[in-house]
Amino acid sequence: MHAWLCEDPVGVDALTWKELPTPQPGPGEVLVEIKAASLNFPDILIVQNKYQIKPPLPFVPGSEYAGVVQAVGEGVKHLKVGQNVACLSGTGGFGTYTIAPAALCMPLPDGFGHVDAAAFIMIYATSWHALMDRAQLKAGETVLVLGAAGGVGTAAIQIAKAAGAKVIAAASSPEKCALCESLGADSTINYSEHKPGPALREAIKQATGGRGPDVIYDPVGGEFAEPAFRSIAWRGRYLVVGFASGPIPSLPLNLALLKGASLVGVFWGDFSKREPQANAAMMAELAQWYGQGKIKPVIDRTMPMSELKAAYAHMGSRGVMGKLVLTN
Fold this sequence. Notes:
Pfam families: ADH_N (PF08240), ADH_zinc_N (PF00107). By secondary structure, the chain is an alpha/beta fold.
């Protein structure tokens, strides 16, 4: 097998494409022939030694992938050789084969292609857990999605619309705003025109008739957080999803008091471990929604696995709309 190996987590340039022995699965594991793997924001952080999870060196990055089971380890009953699966295991995806924990593998129904499957679990699980579980989103409420043209943002638009909410999508260019509208967003805010601060607050005020959004979905952080939180509706829920812009913001907590608002942390990874039955039920519902056509990953482009470094560069340029997927 071949894989991109991180032997020194100082950045993307240190990754090397190496031939390695094809491993065999141990108890509770499966060997997956990787057909597609998506690039997620944590995949950038982990090779820079900036992610909260620091795997032992050397490791193969690539948190999310899809492929075909080629061997099963002892005790694995729900998967068989030849079965199509998707998996989000945190590492191992940027190669031709990997060992995956069987418990983390999602069996794919007929018609669920590898490219869509490789771009599915992280964004839809995160967005469903955020909106439906943590925010308890109700039909008729208004959701503001920041970073709406990215992977989790596009998933959040689709889930919120399927739940009967009104969606305001904020993105950084006319092209990204147009994408959000094509996914069902009721209105958009281009924050290259409405900069973080009073201009962004005014745009949110106009989009909500002065009331403010009931739920704010924020995977961006940085300078967008405070003006967005200042705009939230009474009893609003501010979802802390991530910090794609880099800086972790510091919010004046008196804003939560004045708005009767909740600041809600979203950590799907720990939710899936601490509440596995609830997570399994969520994933089953999401797979059903995919089959019904309610949700479908937005694929920015597919690239050969050998072009991983170029894919990282494209993602770093913030030009990605939806998900980047690497294929073997």
